[in-house]
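**Fold in tokens:**
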Amino acid sequence: MSKREIHNLMTIGEVAGSFGVCVATVRRWCKNGKFSRVIRTIGNQRRFDPDEVHEMLHPTGGKRIMVGYARVSSYDQRSDLTAQAERLSQYGCQLVIKDLGSGLNCKKPGLKRLLKLLLTKRVGALVVTHDDRLLRFGTELIYFIAHLMDTRIVILDEPEQQSFETELVKDVITLMTVFCARLYGKRSRKNKVKENTGIKNLSFR
């Protein structure tokens, strides 16, 4: 293989960055036979075929897929999360992304993964069981992004028509619940720090 051909190959660091994993994970994949087109340089460094990496990242061969998104707010609702995921799979979703967290949290890993797929035009249709599964506030922004990317939105259960007052009460309750949880969590962390400090002080006496 010529120097130019080797130069066009990917390093292990580049492959790790493409998959969003660490270098050690890629090395483990190599040992398990995940890659079939890997060569070694004179310096015994791995080089990867970019076409194989692309095929692994885009197994549909460039075709856009139907993606389902399921979310619940707490760990206690995990059975509902499973039910959502199963329903989305039965509908025909080729990929179901599951998230655990508040509808006000925009940093959920599943949501970020979904946005990345949308922005790279890999989603042909986005399916959710209910309108508020994506976000409690700001769903319209995701719909707008989907529209720009020519992604179809499918909502399996259309929301019931509610009065403005009812929707406002639900929004206020949601906000209060989230902020109270954050406040209690902050107090709990402070109390834990105090307890740990007290234990350390006792141990040195």
